[in-house]
């Protein structure tokens, strides 16, 4: 625990240099990190968005599993003018921790494929895999890249607060430059480029003189940059942290004038 905190404290001054002042862009390396993350992570607003997408029918020779370099056959509308597709499988369903409303569905990254030829079934060649491709896996177009102009800090924004509800890479502690999933999105007023302050809840400690428990004050503990918004969810990058952060830590709109 002490070692993790020491690493975060040493990282913090360097991460603060990445924090864009109003009207300034992120540096190129941070933009590239965001683009790589978006290649492998996707949120769908509803189950229908995934269930209506084109899907894999079989691998070559009718096999039920496909691997890197193999051809696969798919059914559905695929556009040869946009030949690169991500292969995804339905993942976890995100719900709001306060209201239990369904907010969206995580599409688990299986790999990528490239359009080869159309026919009764469309043929694609698998270019990258994280696991074997199966019949029923869905094909989604590559997402639009993050435009640097969209990541400029807005001049003003409504006050918004919510929770970090997931760390897509599957760890429990959030480190500097990790991406996280937030339970707020476009409908709540979040915009790409917005900065958020992570608030760490104060611990409950025992008052040794008066007796009983007393809660310590909540304290700012980090800064997030929103880089992709969906209807009810968003992705954000942790730019700085003064202590270890975790899922269910609270965030709120930062002072955009800072």
From TrEMBL:
Leader peptide range in chain numbering: 1-17
Key words, A-Z: Signal
Keyword Signal annotated: yes
The protein, known as: Peptidoglycan-binding protein
